[in-house]
Amino acid sequence: xxxxxxxxxxAKVEQRRREYIGDAASRPLPRRARLLxxxxxxxxxxxxxxxxxxxxxxxxxxxFGAAMTISGGPVEAPLAQGRALPTRARVxxxxxxxxxxxxxxxxxxxxxxxxxxxLELRIARALPATMHPQQRASAPQLPLRATNGGLSxxxxxxxxxxxxxxxxxxxxxxxxxxxxxxPRLHAQVAFTAYGGETLEADPWVHQTPAAIVTTRGGSxxxxxxxxxxxxxxxxxxxxxxATDAGSFSVSARSVGPHLVALGWTxxxxxxxxxxxxxxxxxxxxxxxxxxxxxxxxxxxxDANVSADGAYDYTVEAELANAATLTATAHVDTPTEMxxxxxxxxxxxxxxxxxxxxxxxxxxxxxxxxxxxxxxxVKAGVSDIELRLSRGTFVEAANPAVHAWxxxxxxxxxxxxIRLIAWSVPRRNSADDVAESVAMARYRTPAGNGFDGLSLDxxxxxxxxxxxxxxxxxxxxxxxxxxxxxxxxxxxxxxVVSPQITHFSNDDYxxxxxxxxxxxxxxxxxxxxFRTAHEYARSDVADNCSQVVAQTKQLAGxxxxxxxxGQSTDLGRTGSPSASELHWCLxxxxxxxxxx
Length: 595
Known about the structure:
globular, TIM Barrel, 3 domains, alpha+beta
C-alpha cells in the first residue's frame, strides 16, 4: 500500500542531482520502500506495494540488525532493511524465457544484414525531404508557472504518449524570503487535477514534490496545496493539447521483444476524421495495413512483431473531404528474452529492496553484496526477488548504486542464487510496462541477470487506483506484459490475498490475471491484532492453507500458487514467531502450494 516515508535531507539540489543521475537529468530517482500502510488505507493490515513479504520456510529477517530466526536458532539478519524481510513458500513449474538486456548495460549481437538495412533506413530518414504539415517544427515552449505566496508550481508542455494520452509533470517549489523558488525533498503537497488525472511522482526526480498529470484532451486545471509546510495553494491552467490537423503526430515505442505500442493525436471532431489506418513496414520493405481504428480511437498495440526487429509505422487519418493526414514513427524491438525455467523460484526465497540515498535507513551502502549473499546462502535462500522499479522510476538510477547492483547480481550468480526482477506497477501505460520488462532484461557486464519478472499488482491512490478502473488497469497491465515478453517467460503475479480481504473477482481481477500468469503469489499476512495476541497454530495454518485453494478457485484454472507469508510487524501488529512461519509453510505445502 502507498506510504509516505522520510528521505535524506535535501542540500545543494544540482550537486545532488549530478551525483545521482549525472547528465541524465531527466532520469527519475527511486522511492524507497516502507512497510507501514498509510493511515486510513482500506488495507491497513497489509504492507504497501514494494514491501511485500514472502514465506521462505523456516526463517525470518528482523529489522535493524536484530536476529534472524531459523528453526528457533538465532542468526544475524543478512539484510537489515529497517523492516523485516520476507520468507516464502515456493512453487514448481515449466520452462520459461527471460531477458538479456536493459538500458543501463546491453550486449549486442554481431552486425547482420538486417541491421545494415536498418542503418540504411535511418540514413534515408536523415536526408532532406519535404516535411508534412503535421511534422512541422515548433518553437521551444517554456514551462508554465504559477506562484501564490510561498508556493510555486510549474509544468512542461504536453507530451504525446504511446498510449494516445497526453502527459506532463507539475512540480512544486517553495519560495524563500527573496521570492526565489526552492525545492524541498521532504515537503508534502497535495495535487488535484480537474479535467485530468494526477499520480504522485517520486520526489527524487525533481528533489521536490511533483505530480504526473495525464489527459485525453481538453484543458486541465491543476491545484497544488502545500501540507507540510503549509504555505498556501497555487493553481495552474494547462491549455488543451493541440488536436488540429497541423499538429497530427504519432508516438511509438517498443514495450518488449514482442509488443509495440502506438498512440497518435486524437483529431478534433471539426477535422472531419472518419477513421485511422495503421501501416507497418519491415526492413525488407514490405508495407501492410495492420489496423483500422475508428475515429474515436487513437492508440493501437502491435503484438505481431519479432524480437530484434526494425519497424516503420505510418498512421493515416482519413478525413471527410477525402484528404488524408499521415504521421510516421520508427521502432526497434529488443533481442529475445533469455531462457529460464520456473525452478528459479523453487525453495526458500526473500524480497529485497533498497534506497540510493546514503542517509536512508534502507540505503544500499550499508549492504555489502558479498556479505549479503554469504548470509543468504547460510540461511538456505535459493532465490531473491529484488525490487528494481516502481512505475517508471528506476531504483538503481545513479552510477554508484548501479555498480553496487552489479556486484550483488554477480555475487548471487556465483552462489547459484536465482534473482527475480520485482516491479511495482503504478499505471497500465506502455512506459510503465516497458520499464518492468527492461528491468527483467538487465544483465551485468559479466552477463548475469534475472530469471523472471514479478509484478506486485496493488490497488490504491498511488498505484492502480480503486474500483472498476483499478481492475481494468491491473488486468490490462498483466496482459500487456505477457504480450511483451512472450508466452513462455516466467511471469509471477503478486496479488491481494482473497483470504484476508474476502475479495472475489468482482473486487479484484484474479481470473483475468491468471490467464497470463505463470504463478499466482497471494500476500498472506495473518497478523491483524494491534494489541498483544498469541496466534494459535490453527489461526496461522488456516490462513496459509485456505488461501491456496481460494486463489486457484478465483483464478479459474489450476495455476501454481506460491504463498507470500508475513514475517514482520505491519504497523503495531507484531512480527510472527518462528513457530508461526513453520505452521504457515507446512499448511501451504499441504494445501498444494509449490515449494
